[in-house]
Amino acid sequence: MGGWSVFVSCCVWAILLLALFGDSLASAPEFDPYNVLGVTRHASQAEIKKVYKSLAREWHPDKNKSPGAEDMFIKITKSYEILSNEERRANYDQFGQMDENQNFAQAQQGFRHYHDSFYFDESFFHFPRTSRDFTDSKHLFHYSQYISEVLPDSFKRPYLIKITSEWCFTCIHIEPVWKDTVQELEPLGVGIGVVDIGYERQLANHLGAHRTPSILGLINGKVTFFHYAVVREHLRQFVESLLPQKLVEKVTDNSYLEFLNSWHEENKPRVLMFDVASNIPLLYKLTAFAYKDYVRFGYVDMGLTETSKVVQRFNINTYAPTMLLFKENTDKPADVIQARGMKKQIIDEFVSNNRFLLVPRLVNQKLFDELCPVKQIHRRRKFCVLLVTGEGEQFVSVNEAFFDFASSNTKEVLRFAYVYQRQQQPLCDTLLKKEDTTPPQVILLERRNATGRVFYRTVTGGWNGSDDDKHRLLEQLELLQRDSSYLTHDAMLPELNNEFASMFLIQWINTAYDYLAQFYFDLLYSNWREMMPVLSLIFSALFILFGTVIIQAFSDAGEDKPAKQKPTQSPKTAESSPGQESTSSRPPKKSFVEVTELTDITYMSNLVRLKPGHINVVLILTDASKQVLLRKFAKEVFSFSGSQTLHYSFLNVDKHSQWMDSLMESAPDARPSDCLDKEEEEEDSTSNKSDYTGHVLALNGHKKYFCLFRPVFTGEEAECSRWSDEDASKASRSRSSSRQKATTLEIHHKLDRLGLWMERLMEGTLPRHYVPAWPGLDTITPQK
Question: What segments bear the compositional bias annotation Polar residues (predicted)?
Fold first, then answer.
């Protein structure tokens, strides 16, 4: 009995398995995209595309109400996705049925061996299917379609886009919310899109989407990611936040007249929307965004006491939403609609048919193209009646008479408009130059091509707004409608000036604010992968900025303090021999020292325009001491001639006697104060000439300062060393002693201590005397 029970159990299991999987194993037809589309395996892309469009129209569920239409449409769409992509088509031709196609097969294999594991049919375990439903299929975006259609359309309506993939099991959880949101927002005018990141990797990268599921918004060509919990209300608020602020102005009893009367400044009709809601409905905001270039929208909340007057003024029924459209006449609406269930199609038709004023002003080329379209072969002619006028008070009555004449026009072939001559000077000059007339003038014209060619004729007699002028214009319009050859002149019109171009700066500021706000918003969330390019750009800019600052700081330091030359021997003293003095610093690059004379020719280049960080060491001499001092000077500075920032010159005070006096007057702190007593100051006051022979100046032309070396007296160096500014305060001589020592002065030894002074110059420890400007060689007063 035990063996029999085992046998019966095996039979029962076999029957169950055959019942479950027998059909699948016996007849599991594979999904063949070629058979679905009815094309051969050698069909071209053009043939596939043509067949797909035909079948899609035939099996679209909105047109085909048969029970299997939706499934067939999904198969057709899936087949086209495979065959329209060369890579996927090649994979299918090589490997046959792919995993991504199995969802569309009518039956699948029960289980099979795959990478040493079992693959089970998901229907057996009741797994949710990840294949796209019909809602996603009809909203699929391709890269070329996105660039050519969706991106330009985002300037008229916002888009809500979902990023998904075939094997995104997480996407299953948001599908019910997504479906409900699409059903709510799409009828209002929100664009819906789905991007399969597996098939459209290029589009996903373009959008900056790198994970699934993701939801993003697109408006005015800018992408914004959704970061909140996927809830229907959150998605609705997200779409509403994408729209620009102040699209719809809230109007009350105190502001409705100002709102209606501002049509002239903006050159747009006004729409007042009446409804009982504290918040402006999303449908109104989307309509205002779609027609923002044509119409200005206002909203009146009929539930407020502050709006009772305007509701009574226009006799509004408070039980149904109402829309009033005003043009030039602000006392009476040009058109009205009222309906309990206000639909998008009704509002679009209402606004589109009234998007222009009765007599709009031509303010840009776009408006001119729409009001006066180019003549086309298979369409009825459109003639433009254009008034060329001015903005002054003398033109008010003339313009109003033209508006009254245009308001009585009922013929669609005639379009009335006007221009201000001052605002559109090139256009008016072209139209008026042949007959040499002045505004106001009425011109009849017809555009022949998009490049600007027109046929036109000026109405005879001009335009003053009288009854005779109106009668004459009416007769000529009738002649024009009977025979278009009535337009006798032709011309090439220039492109119209954009009269609202001055608002570009405000638009740029608003755009910059939007981008900064978006950057701050993204920074609050963990969307780092999308933020990495922006962060990289910011840190690169900061690195370059700080690097420039650091380099400049080192450059200034090198300018203020030249690099110290390391001596090869100990510093020389006053008693050291001349042979020892020349070896106190590093070996020079040259075997001689270049010393140039400061003249009126070399003065600017060698001092005033000296490079930053460079110093010119100038020796002061006379004709008599020139040869002796130059030899001594070259010997003392020879060891420093290897520095690239030091230059050497000499100034002959016999030629430019007043230059040193001017320099010392500009820097009073450079004058010695303790080496002369009171009697010597009184004696010197009688003489205007000072002896500067043997003085050496280190001039920094860029920063306008100098360091001063004063010559020494032979035999008395220890008692009154006058070789530098700071040592001058230590020396104090009586008048008789100074006069006696002056007779023993030897010119050759004036520069004995110049080597030590040069060492301190290289160290940057010498006092600096700043001047407001360098004096000229030929004048005493410093030149600014």
Answer: 566-586
